[in-house]
């Protein structure tokens, strides 16, 4: 009997994995189609972006032919799809490097910022949400809800400017804009692209300290936004669980309040995994304003500068990579959440 149940459960896992893989492929294909069409709809001539405004008609026609812009739209998309599958997003006009090379340089900075912001949001947001649910309608609950509401309401670029004014200009508690001071930019030994890891690997503790001084303010602001969302969702999930009959039964049986709350929290893990994963994904693609305000050399700032320079290869390449990351994180968190969901375990048996 147990062997039959195990085989049934394994079959269910494989079926779900197959469905998730198919969903991933279809979504990524749709994403590539959308980014391709956006690149054709935007009123920016990629030929002029490469050659300049004073190009002769002959050179213009030659470059246009080399880019394949004279081909039918469907054929252009197939060429674009083939290039992307080979990791070729074209060459950046702004840097004269391949877009994939630029992304490999800029993306680690965005990941560092997103990881730090998500970590801060989780460390503070989940306990705040639990406390808010347990002490529903108390003054503590009201304070936490106001803090979360403020996090939703204040624009991140305004918070960034005010934070720089107070903590950098006035108090001098943190470093200024950028990822490192100029003095350290050319002495760090780069291997992974992640400054924290590279500094630890090579024992460059002064560089690590300088990096953390630059990171703390933008990461805290993103962490505040993450905390507001995570706290709100945790409160909602906990209130739902605390109103269930099994909680009443547990209290009647004499379980301590701590164990009751812990049991309720365990049943919210599947939902919280999805919330935290989506928060991280949003920070990957939504930290553009933060990177701009703090001159943080991440993928958001790279895309923004490329857009201002009419560098569509870089814009579409960066957007595609972020979109793929978002889709992969979303689908992976959904699959991971199923393993923490007790309802899934029961249904598979």
TrEMBL record:
It is found in: Cell membrane. InterPro entries: BPD_transp_1_N, MetI-like, MetI-like_sf. The chain crosses the membrane at residues 21-42, 113-135, 147-169, 211-231, 269-294, 314-336. The keyword NADP does not apply. The keyword Transport applies. GO terms for cellular component: plasma membrane. Its main location: membrane. Keywords: Cell membrane, Membrane, Transmembrane, Transmembrane helix, Transport. Residues 107-337 form the ABC transmembrane type-1 domain. One of its GO terms (molecular function) is dipeptide transmembrane transporter activity. Gene3D superfamilies: MetI-like. It is a multi-pass membrane protein. It comes from the Bacteria. PROSITE patterns: ABC_TM1. Belongs to the binding-protein-dependent transport system permease family. This is Peptide ABC transporter permease. It comes from Advenella faeciporci.
